[in-house]
Amino acid sequence: MLRVSRSDSAYHHGNLGPALEDAALDLMRTQGHTSLSLREVARRAGVSHNAPYHHFGDRTGLLKRVSERSMAELVSAMRAAQASAEDASPRERAVRVGGAYVGYAAEHPERFRVVYDPEVCVPGSPTPTMAPLITEIEGILAETTAALLPPGAEAALMPLTVAVWGSVHGLAELVVAGHITQDDVEPALVALLDPGSSARLAP
Length: 203
Known about the structure:
Radius of gyration: 20 Å
Number of domains: 2
CATH class of the largest domain: Mainly Alpha
Order of helices and strands: HHHHHHHHHHH
Distance between the termini: 77 Å
CATH architecture of the largest domain: Orthogonal Bundle
Helix content: 55-70%
Shape: elongated
């Protein structure tokens, strides 16, 4: 009987890429991405040590693919939060969307870090797959922010969207670093997006 190795089988059936990505993500849970080696990834995936090079070219190629996959997950989390708050007030919707962004970072810190590593996703030069994902993140934030603005304040949309993104991203970084907890996030977002409401809730 002809026996086919796991690496040959995965390669010829088109599963090598996803198998290597899964192995990389699994390893990243405990060691992050900065020290990730293709040899370790190949060993975890059960393929030859040359397989990742054949498929991704080099380590950066694999990390770019992992970052694209992670960004797609982040987009999905934010879209789900946006849809769940369809009937909520604009500020409540913004709190939920921002909370989803931070929540993804808290649940998958290693994936969040690779998404925003400038050596993986070079600012201004995203991959063809990453570019529309970044555009979608910006679109979600712009839609959410636009609903907060009074009529006639359209000129403030872009700077306010950047400010909201920066604030939410900063909260995510603080949670990932362990400086604050997820329980601190919602009150912080409420205070940011609706200071009057926060003051009314204060003892």
